[in-house]
Every structure is written in C-alpha cells, then in structure tokens.
Amino acid sequence: MSTIRSDLPTALPLATxxxxxxxxxxxxxxxxxxxxxxxxxxxxxxxxxxxxQPARAQRPGALLDIRV
Length: 68
Fold this sequence. Notes:
By secondary structure, this protein is mostly helical. The protein has one helix and no strands. The longest helix is centred in the middle third of the chain and has 20 residues, at 20-39. The two termini are 37 Å apart.
C-alpha cells in the first residue's frame, strides 16, 4: 500500500470563467446551425412499391437479450 502524498494541494484550482465573447461565438454558431436545419426542406419518403410483409406473432421472450 502506498503512502498518501503530502505535496499535493488540498483544494483544486478554480475553473476560469468563460469570456463573454466565447459564449457569444458559441451561441451564434449553434443558432446558425439550427437555422440551417429549420430552413432545409423536409425529406418525404418515397412510396414503397414492394408488398408489405404480414405481421408475425411475437415469440415469447423475443425481446430478451440473454447470452451465456
């Protein structure tokens, strides 16, 4: 077992506050990204030409993920 080091500081250094310019730049970046997403046209899925598969009954325990 190792001994406790006495040369370590007892309190952690305080984090420096983020400058207002950095916060404004981050906010502008995310605002621009959200505006791009909102301005993009919504993609509509193409109608499927394949036949839909009939619904199958769930097996008991099908949702369990047990591996040994």
